[in-house]
Amino acid sequence: MGKAKGNTTLRADDATIRAAIAAERREMADLLDALPAERWDERTLCAGWRVREVAAHLSFGFRYSFGQVVGELIRARGSMDRMTDRVARREAAAMSRQAMAAALRENADHPWTPPVGGFASALGHDVVHGLDITIPLGLERRVPEDRLRIVLGTASPMGTRFFGAKLGGVRLRAEDLDWSYGTGSEVSGRAQDLVAVVFGRKVPAGRLHGEASGRFTAR
What we know:
Elements: E1 4-6, H1 14-34, H2 51-58, H3 60-63, H4 66-75, H5 80-94, H6 97-106, H7 118-137, H8 145-152, H9 157-162, E2 170-174, E3 179-182, E4 185-189, H10 191-198, E5 208-209
Parallel strand pairs: 2-4
Antiparallel strand pairs: 1-3, 2-3, 4-5
């Protein structure tokens, strides 16, 4: 699998990335606050999750201590996927919509990072889960280019395997910025749609172009 090419990798320092994270969280909090109640039960790009499960999960890392995470992981018999799903469903049922939005806004500057990847991966987490909501709901939110460049710059064979993105034999190419990844049959689209693909999502029909685009299109 080829590496990311072009000018996408923004060589940002931690302070710059943390500012981008804070802005992303505040913007998503505003979006969630404005989202009508009936839309919180719509499906997202996260398989099996509605908007409310994704919204609950977005602030999970801020609200649980390391010990609590370990306890939840033990109860899930060591499965990270089972643990995150169980917690998201439980909290989606227990938390109000306003509380989920507030948890993002109030923790905009929280220094949480995933186990691997540092602040760039934390930004990826927030951007991708935001896209999980906005893309299927047809919300015309455009993720700022500087954030997309940072997130796309994290693309790697190990990361794509972890997220279940099957990119073998495909070259992804952004149509709205200078970025490509991989080798093979070209699949092109907007950068933020390709972020979703890199993180193992399938996007609605018509958003990608190329003979192999059907591999990454939701039915």
